[in-house]
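Fold this sequence, please.
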Amino acid sequence: MAVIFAFSSESNPVPEVTDHVWDKLLHIIEYGGLAILVARALAGEGLAWLSASVVAAMLTVGYAASDEYHQGFVPGRNSDLRDWVADSVGAVVGAAVYTIATTRRNRPVS
């Protein structure tokens, strides 16, 4: 979250990447990764894997909204609903990836 906040505070973060990669794909990857990390942390604290995934997705979507709001105050940046939607898609995809990986890892061998 701190890394996302730091990049969001810059007017033009990593232009060598953003000039060559679709903006929304970067949002999906960024927030998908965050959701996986949050779900893993919540599960590590004792939350069941499905609950951890759902809560992680919700927390990540909420953080994405706060990040878009924050960007509205950064010179050269703006708040964009489409960016928040891409962030939210990433959060849900990340939580789903965590869920799938966890269920496969915990599946009994037949």
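The helical segments are 2-8, 15-18, 23-44, 49-71, 81-106. The chain has one domain: 22-106.
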